[in-house]
Write a structure and sequence with these properties.
Strand order of the largest sheet: 1-2
Structural class: mainly alpha
Shape: rod-shaped
Radius of gyration: 44 Å
Number of strands: 4
Largest sheet: 2 strands, antiparallel
Length: about 300
Amino acid sequence: MDAQQVSAAPRAPSPVRGGATPTSGVRHINSRHTSRFTVIGNHLAQHRELSLLAIGLSTYIQSLPAGARIGIKTLSERFPDSEARIAAALRELEAHGYLSRTRERLPNGRVVTRTCSYNQPNGAPQRHPSPAPAPKPEPRRQPPAPAPAPTAATSTPTPPPPPLPQPRNPLPQYLRAATALLTDLHRHSAAITLTEKDVVLLAPAAATWFERGATPAALRHALTDDLPQPLKRPAKLLRYRLTALVPPPPTPDHPTVLFQNCDRCDRAFRSPTPGDCRECREERADDPYAPFPILSG
């Protein structure tokens, strides 16, 4: 008698249904499992409402021996997924009847969680998902999504800045003096750097100060004193100070002394009559070769 063959010949690959070889799509090359395998129904493997993580997690839980720990922390240590994603997948399995978790109190007073895994979804009481499902967390090692921009219905519109003061009588000497003062501010405070456009925009407001009796020293002090550090937007700060600190308009009891242009250096100075500025007058007094003023008879 021939010896009995102990091991069976390997099983040939399963043919495609209908006996035809597919021209596209997946082709299955199956081998028979003889140990360490778990039977999973297509109702789970091809579930249309469960996520891939939930299907894979249920497959892993059904392959474990009875008594194995399947807590969220234990599963997050086993797989690269975060605790939040694993917790969401467990809730999916509970909602579709593949898992149940109940809390029981032992005779010694300790409260434990009993977890049951079902290979058929009808084996567990199904629990409907909550109306507001938990949002899916962002993938690992990615920055959080930026907060959505406020809509027009919820945001409060920023009020426009108050208009710059304007002189009632825009005299040329006031505008020239204001332009010169604004252009020269960086020599007194290095943090104040203005563009040509900034100077043209702010010059009428500075001229308003001169029209209302302010001296160049007083205006320069108001614009450069106690500056914030660091000063990021100097033009915006000067606009605010020129508007908020502008002196009141002159009154009949306190008329404004007009600016004059010096006949020698063309520098603006405050005087009721034209002529030389104080510096030029002092320089003329110290110069022995300076001509005497011509007096009319």
